[in-house]
Amino acid sequence: MRTMTIASLSGGQGKTTTAFFLSRLLSASSKVLVVDADPQANLTFFLGHEVEANAPTLLEMITGTVEPLDSIYKLSVSNLFLVPADDGLTKAQDYLAASGMGAVVLRNRLQQVAQHFDYCIIDAPPTRSQIVMSAVGAADWLLIPAEALTKGVNSLVRTLELASHLDALGAFAGRVLGIVPFRDRWFGNSQSTKSAAAIKAIKEIAAESQTEVFPSILESERYKQALDEGILLSDFGYPNLELPFKRVIERL
Fold first, then answer.
1. How confident is the model over 225-235, as pLDDT tens digits?
2. What is the CATH number of the domain that holds 62?
C-alpha cells in the first residue's frame, strides 16, 4: 500500500475536495483506503458514511483500543474503504503528544492493514497539530493544495516548512509529490489578477524546492455539487474538471 497525505496548514485550501475526487477516481481500478484525519469529518460526510454511537473511528485506531481493521468500513462504492472521523478525534491530540512518537503512530497503525489495499488517501486537518504531524509522518507522498490567493501561498510555505521539519527529525520519510492550485478564478478566457499573482508565487516556490505544480482546480460550483451528491464530475457531464486529479494519479 502506498500512502498519500493531502495537507495544507489553513482552512479552505481544497484538501477534502482533492481527497474525495482522488479516492473516487483511484477506486475505479484499485483498492483504496481513505482516512479522514480531520475532526470536522467533512470527508466522512461526503463519502456517505454515518458514524454510529460507540463505533470505532480513527480515534480508536490511533489510540490502539481496537484492532486497525475494526476501524475500517466498506463504502457503497466498489473498492473504497474508510476510516471515519468525528469530533471525538480531537482527543487523539493528548494521546499522540504523550506517546513521544506521535509523528509515526498513524504510520505504524496503517502498516498493519497495508496488505489489504493498494492506496491510502489521508485527509489531514488544517492546523499544525499532533494529528497533522502523524498524518504527514504516515505519507509516502505529500500533496499540497493551495488556494490561488495570498492565504494559499502562505499556507503552502507553512506546509513545506512542516514537511522539512519532520524530515529533519526522521519522522517523514516520503516526498512532496506536488502542489495543486485551488479555486483558480477565471472570467471567460481571462484569469483573475489575484489568481494569476498567487499561482505565479506558487510556481516560484515550487521551483525553489523542485516540486511539480499540477493543473489548477478551477473555481466552479460543479465541484461542490459533485461533493454534495457524492459523485464524480464525469457522472454529470464535466470530466474536464477532473484533470488535476487525473494528472496526480498519472504520477503515482
1. 999 999 999 99
2. 3.40.50.300
